[in-house]
Recover the amino acids of this structure.
């Protein structure tokens, strides 16, 4: 019996057809339906901790370093500090790779040859990197030359406040960290745009050409150094200020890693504060729940049955390359360190992984590029994507049916709301994750993450309830997948 929707309180039986539809159709609903006060507080608390962590870690170095500090407080130790100590069930270990990628694990009672449960996310995001010789003077301005990193709409990065983050390493190996533009008293930076009064020709160009990559030069100063006989006095003043505060010379830019990111902080979005707008949701809104899930996995008084691992990789936005990306041997080296070279391949082929990465949320403003019946929707929970890729699934791992079914059943069993979704219509574009690199190692892997609006923009938007359900889903995978 169900209550009639006419509001008069009359109760009547569902029709046979409706009963059959309820049984056969898959209709994920809005997760906010039926949320009680206690659950709402848990969602808000988790969102608040995430926003704070996100503001603290806007680059892959900052995020992974903040994660290491969190792990240490929860009893995790560096695996490289253990020496010959025997790795026993319940031990909590991590490895920080080149200061950018991070792997942590809670060792289970079952031998690692039976596999591990792995959550794999990435902590890099689209941004602007400084070139090796970036600082120059033109028309009484000091400017910094950049090379954009990852897939961006270049016009979105003009006329917004930018912050400068990164590290300088001098010839003696001394590392100097820099974070300028985030605190209230800091100056910010920006990239100028053309005023509409003079932009007639610019406005006729394709969006991809309206702002060229070589036009993304950061405005860094306009005052003169106090010496009339000196050359390039605006550039000199800017460099002298950097030298005074950080000990930097122009040569130090050649080995530096300096990134420009949006200077604004994570904020609640909407009258109801149900969403979070911020830079770097892709993919830190999955990395943070994955990290928290593994920390929680190791918080019990007894060791868990199966080893749980969180892998936070770098360089995903440019193809997972380099010695901190998912194509490197970093992950395999960590597994070998905890199970031995002899059991490495058996462990990998017996393991299961959720590729914890975001998906595109259906956006009614841009509905034409989405396949509505195969899209993911904000507020409806975790997105399980059997494949990603583009142009005929190129760049996808395409999870097998058996593993997809197991993960779906696991989420349903643990009452974690889930949906399925693709990135967009066939041949409209596409994108990949680290799933294909995990699959190459023989690991069963399925993409599982959060729907995002305005992906790869300086201000992406997610739902607080999706963030929380992501955490619950990752926790369920660690504890319930055998």
């Amino acid at each position: 019996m169900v209550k009639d929707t006419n509001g008069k309180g009359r109760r009547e039986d569902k029709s046979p057809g409706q009963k059959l539809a309820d049984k056969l159709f898959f209709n994920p609903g809005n997760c906010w339906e039926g949320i009680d006060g206690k659950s709402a507080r848990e969602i808000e608390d988790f969102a608040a901790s995430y926003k704070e962590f996100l503001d603290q870690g806007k680059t892959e170095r900052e995020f992974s370093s903040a994660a290491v500090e969190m792990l240490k407080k929860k009893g995790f130790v560096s695996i490289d500090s253990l020496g010959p100590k025997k790795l026993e069930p319940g031990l909590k270990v991590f490895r920080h790779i080149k200061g950018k990628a991070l792997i942590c694990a809670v060792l289970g009672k079952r031998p690692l040859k039976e596999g591990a449960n792995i959550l794999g996310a990435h902590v890099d995001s689209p941004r602007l990197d400084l070139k090796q010789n970036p600082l120059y003077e033109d028309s009484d301005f000091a400017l910094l030359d950049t090379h954009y990193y990852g897939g961006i709409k270049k016009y979105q990065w003009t006329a917004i406040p930018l912050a400068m983050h990164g590290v300088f390493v001098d010839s003696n190996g001394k590392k100097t960290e820099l974070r300028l533009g985030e605190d209230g008293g800091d100056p910010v930076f920006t990239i100028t745009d053309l005023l509409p009064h003079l932009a007639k020709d610019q406005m006729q160009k394709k969006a991809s050409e309206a702002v060229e990559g070589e036009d993304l030069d950061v405005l860094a100063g306009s005052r003169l150094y106090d010496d009339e006989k000196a050359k390039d006095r605006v550039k000199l003043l800017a460099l002298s200020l950097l030298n005074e505060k950080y000990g930097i010379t122009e040569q130090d830019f050649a080995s530096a890693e300096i990134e420009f990111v949006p200077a604004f902080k994570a904020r609640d979005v909407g009258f109801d504060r149900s969403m979070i707008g911020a830079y770097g949701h892709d993919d830190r809104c999955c990395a943070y729940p994955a990290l928290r899930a593994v920390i929680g996995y190791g918080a019990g008084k007894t060791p868990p049955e199966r080893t749980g691992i969180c892998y936070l990789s770098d360089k995903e936005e440019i193809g997972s390359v380099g010695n901190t990306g998912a194509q490197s041997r970093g992950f395999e080296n960590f597994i070998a360190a905890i199970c031995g070279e002899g059991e490495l391949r058996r462990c990998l082929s017996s393991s299961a992984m959720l590729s914890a990465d975001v998906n595109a949320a259906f956006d009614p403003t841009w509905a034409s590029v989405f396949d509505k019946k195969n899209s993911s929707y904000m507020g409806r929970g975790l997105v399980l994507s059997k494949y990603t890729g583009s142009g005929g699934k190129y760049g996808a791992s395409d999870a097998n049916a058996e593993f997809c079914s197991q993960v779906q059943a696991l989420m349903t069993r643990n009452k974690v709301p889930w949906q399925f979704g693709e990135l967009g219509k066939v041949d409209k574009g596409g994108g990949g994750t680290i799933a294909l690199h995990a699959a190459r190692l023989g690991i069963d892997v399925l993409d599982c993450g959060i729907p995002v609006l305005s992906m790869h923009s300086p201000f992406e938007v997610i739902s607080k309830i999706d963030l929380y359900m992501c955490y619950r889903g990752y926790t369920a995978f660690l504890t319930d997948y055998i």
Observations:
- The chain has two domains: 37-125+279-480, 127-262.
- The longest strand covers residues 127-138.
- The domain at 127-262 is CATH 2.30.250.10 (Aminopeptidase i, Domain 2).
